[in-house]
Amino acid sequence: MNYFLSEELNDIRELCSDIAEKYIIPVRAELDEENRFPGEIIKVMADSDLCGIYIPEEFGGSAEMFGGGSMALCVATEELSKACGGVAVSFAANALGAMPILISGSEEQKRKYLPQLASGEKLAAFALTEPEAGSDAGGVKTRAVKDGDSYVLNGTKQWITNGGEAQIYTVIAQTDPSRGARGLSAFIVEEGTPGFSYGKKEDKMGIRASATRELIFEDCRVPAGNLIAREGFGFIVAMKTLDRSRPGVAAQALGIAQGALDEAARYASERVQFGKRIDSFQGVQFMLADMATQIEAARALVYSTARMIDAGERKFEKESAMAKVFASDVAMRVTTDAVQILGGYGYMKEYPVEKMMRDAKITQIYEGTNQIQRSVIASAVIKETAAGSRG
Amino acid sequence: MRMVVAVKQVPDTAEVRIDEERGTLIREGVPSILNPFDEYALEEALKWRDQLGGIVTVVTMGPPQAEDVLREAISMGADEAILLSDRAFAGADTWATSHTLARAVAKMGDVDVVLTGKQAIDGDTAQTGPGIAASLDWPQITFVGKVRELNRETITAERYVEGGCEVVRSSLPVVITVLKDANTPRLPSLRGKMKARKMEIPVWGAADLELAAEEAGLDGSPTRVVRIMTPETAAGGEIHRGEPDELARIIVDHLLGKEEE
Which terminal Cβ of chain B has fewer Cβ within 10 Å, N or C? Predict the structure, then answer.
């Protein structure tokens, strides 16, 4: 379908497609097998000016060129994900880590941190999840206690994407346990801060090229100037961050699904059984048709949401959740069907679709499980109905 | 440092058809790309510019659509581009092409280094680079696998030749032709792509280069392609085993026998 992307957005697509072909596809199986972070590929992206596409020009980025940055990020993430969901998330997680600063950071924080991220000189990560606080973000146990002109952090963050690879972390911690979610605050913590260390690196089912690691804070002293917004605003910062980043997860799912369809369609056009190409059998044809249709519907939803955000709409948590839920469910179905179309070969690591199926699964889980997304969507629907403003 | 990279637009595919009568390539309908070897020449120029400062200009001779490869070079980081295009340039062989390119280099003035790929993947002659040097009466270093040093006065480069490597030093200005061993060409950047789309590319014709009709294009080309064919591969050969003395005698006898023929 023609979405009439601007020339600038097409530049992003072309560039990411070149990077995928030259730098990602040749090594994706190896990165997956070895659980290896694609630092050198991120460097290529930085050299191609891709790291700043969601950051405004005044902070070293180029978001204005693409009409905002949300669509730019979606197009880049989709294209990279066609080749490898693990590499794509390593790139996109920087935007997630930078988002609290972009949305709620002070002018000084923006000036200090965003240019380093826009140039790709440094990487970022967002740290919310803990062993006992996942979907229930209000359950965060990491403590931040004010002491003079600094905060002292204690606690452990879990499953942090880009953990150990990023240099700039945005961390959600509890400053007032008596207030629950309203006692949370957001902080910027730099790598190398005394008391901040990395825990174990996770061995994952999919997106194995990406780094997922524990962050450990032991009497870690952070300047008070690193507090984002004000004390007690951490939960709001986190929710706004996730509302903005979910179309990115949706774009990742979309790319993985498209990559799987491309593989399945190509295979079906070459594989001969009963003396015929298998794409001449209606059973396979209907599968391909359903895969393509679901992907296009997901793309329409993802792009519409991203454009809505770029256009400056202030309320988009429902649409963000819809895009994420729909695209990730599509990715899981389509990659499963792609494995089915490739049959025995699809189940083998020699072909890329089994990895795509493993990579797809996480998109239904992270940045808010699809069950949580459905709750978000439902509560929006219920609220709209009560207010008589459905549609 | 001012560097000029002479590039060529070539057909993308190996499935190029040949005009049997004229013995030339049929280029119509075949997608065109930047000659892959020229990408290494461009990267080498960009690399040294990034280090030393200066300007990299890409130049190509060709029809108006050859502008595409110039834009591609700009998107990779070249500073400016010039298209040499004129009906009078049509049908040029490597002689006329090098002559035309050399004129453009002379017109630019103050050029320190001209770089080209070792050869183009369509004609495979490897003559244009040396031709530019000859026409300008500049020194040349061909088949450069590594530029060891480049400064305002001299260049030191490794030529990868059959069976070894020659280290050559030359004064500037100089023409070098670059091998793929030299570097890994960078990808375009987003800013480069945008610059490439907006850039006005000047077009120089025969009059701009003060080229007379008999110096350019078909009229300026002494080469005639007589025939294109697949060479027969040398067959067989003899294998002898034995002591060195004995083998030497066999070879000497063989060579003497040949000489008598």
Answer: C
Position B31 scores a pLDDT of: 78
The whole-number average pLDDT for the span B91-111 is 90
Number of domains in chain A: 3
**Percentage above 90 pLDDT, chain B:** 57
- Tell me what pLDDT residue B120 has: 86
Domain extent, residue A136, equals: 125-234
Nearest CB to A48: which of B187, B194, B197? B187
Q: Above 80 in pLDDT, residue A334?
A: yes
Claim to verify: residue A191 and residue A260 sit in the same structural domain: no
| A contacts of B193 (beta carbons < 8 Å) | 11, 14-15
The pTM assigned to this predicted structure is: 0.86
Q: Is A366 helix (H, G, I), strand (E, B) or coil?
A: coil
On the CB side of B212, CA atoms within 13 Å amount to: 2
pLDDT in tens, B114-155: 999 988 888 788 888 899 999 999 999 999 999 999 998 999
Q: Does residue A248 sit within a domain?
A: yes
Q: CATH number, domain at A229? A: 2.40.110.10
Residue-level pLDDT at B23 = 72
Whether B191 contacts chain A with CB within 8 A: yes
Is A2 part of any domain?
Answer: no
The single-letter code of the amino acid at B153 is E
Q: Which of A99, A122, A145 is the last residue of a domain?
A: A122
How many other CB atoms are there within 10 angstroms of residue A40's CB atom? Answer: 9
Residue A204 pLDDT level (bands cut at 50, 70, 90): very high
Instruction: Say whether B190 and A14 touch across the interface (CB within 8 A).
Output: no
CATH 3.40.50.620 assigned to B2-220: yes
Backbone dihedral angles phi then psi of residue A184, each to the nearest 5 degrees: -85, 150
Residue B188's closest chain A neighbor by CA?
Answer: A48
Stretch A87-97: mean pLDDT: 97
The amino acid that residue B202 corresponds to is P
Q: Is A119's Cβ below 8 Å from some Cβ in B? A: no
Task: Kindly state whether A19 is in contact with chain B, defined as any CB-CB distance less than 8 angstroms.
Answer: yes
Structural domain boundaries in chain B: 2-220
Collect all residues of chain B within an 8 Å Cβ-Cβ radius of residue A53.
Answer: 190
What is the residue-wise DSSP string for A102-167? HHH--HHHHHHHHHHHHTTSS-EEEE--BTTBSS-GGG---EEEEETTEEEEEEEEEEEETTTT-S
Question: Is A261 inside a domain boundary?
Answer: yes
Q: Is A350 a catalytic residue?
A: no
Strands B174-178 and B113-117: parallel
Contact A131, A156 (CB under 8 A): yes
d(CA A281, CA A103): 51
Q: Does A132 touch chain B (CB under 8 A)?
A: no
